[in-house]
Amino acid sequence: MMAIFLTCLLIYTITWSGHHYSIDGVVMFQYAKAILFDHSLVMDPPVRWGIDFTVGKWPIGLSLFYTPILAILSWTIFRNDDAIEKIPFDPELPYNPVLMENRPYLYSSVLNPIITAFSAVILYLLCLRLGFSQKKAAAVALVFALASPAAAYAKFDFAQPLASLFLLLTLLFLLRARRNGFLYLVVAGLSFGIAILARPELLILAPILFVAVFFLRSQSGAKPNPIFTHQIKNLLGFGLPVIVFFLINQYINYLRFGTWFNMGYNPGSGFSLNPKSISTALIGNLISPGRGILLFFPLSILSWIGLRKLFLTDHWLAWELTVFIFGSLLLYSAWKDWGAGISWGPRFFIPIFPYLTLLAFFGFDTLNKYPKLIRFTLFGILLFVGGLIALNGLLFNFLGFYGAFDFPQQVIDQGDYNFLPQYSPILAGWENFTISGSYDIYWLQNNNIQTSTGWTLIMIFIGLIALGYTLKLWLFYFFIGKPSARAN
Fold first, then answer.
1. Using an 8 Å Cβ cutoff, are 335 and 348 in contact?
2. Residue 122 in contact with residue 165, Cβ under 8 Å?
């Protein structure tokens, strides 16, 4: 577990940028300052980005997770430096560039790399729970963390990685509850409650989990409770923590917006029930050059085959993942801004990539009726292309790529530009590949390179060792590992 965590974290450190990518991220980070230092849910001064944000519409979860980092920084690096507490504000500037790049965030931006590296560890444990060998489980975790869009989002400032981590924990504890009982259901409910704080729209998917808990069957060998008593106990164990966190979220929104019924986002303006719009968004989210899951993570093609095998081995989990994945696709295809604004790849779907990776390995196992050379060539090509695409997100700043087109807001909201190859960063965003100074990497930026050359070389050296260890795991599993391990 430690090897997986450190491998991911070291590679994320090499490609670390230390700056913001969205007004969402800016507000969520600056909001943490108001919570921690001002003990307030109102930012004063406001975050000015065209308009003044005194209270953002964005969820509270990521802001809460920034607060311990800010507290540590205020006691150490920023001791006696009030820059850690102040929100950058200049009344003369409608768009203050200091909001996008500043020292407090530079250090605080380690949060999402840590979250994604930890998510890889949880995915590893989840795979072990499903009977994978250690090598195969490690391969699943590392493919997810380093060769899927999750790798790029480890450096961005969005809340999806946080939601992804706690959804993974939810599923892991639900699986443990099948053998170890009621307490794990409570912990699963707590995990899902925190995921709601990160992305409140997940409440729409909550019925999927409640149905899964209702049909949860014990594998411990203990005699089940009378009919329905067992199900009611399970639902209460899982559901009460979820309800508590939902009420906490709504109470915070009451303090922020003055009503218990405000979710931050307006459901009436946020969703569309137009079948044509949903169909277009669904196609775009699956195969468009700008947002398509199957293009940004080609290995997920095998996941649809893997579902069939999972249905043969674990019916409960197969239904749970199937409904959750397709529910997520429908939810965010009904979202009017289905393209997730100016962002890189399928941002809304970062929480489903752990399961697509896991299922892709199941899918690879189902191909054993084909010659070994064909199976490994197919898997290798899909993995290589996915890794190359993830590299695009790690190396380049998508803001510069999309900024060159100067889309009006209406075009961004509509999202149709995602169907055109010339507006896809993974197809048209490689022109500066040979210019290292253009990479979106802190260590290689012109204003940092003079003072960080030594650290850059050290990080590259350590990162190459980590990458070598990763490749060793993959190669050992596929070509050297014991047949019994491969059979898993």
1. yes
2. yes
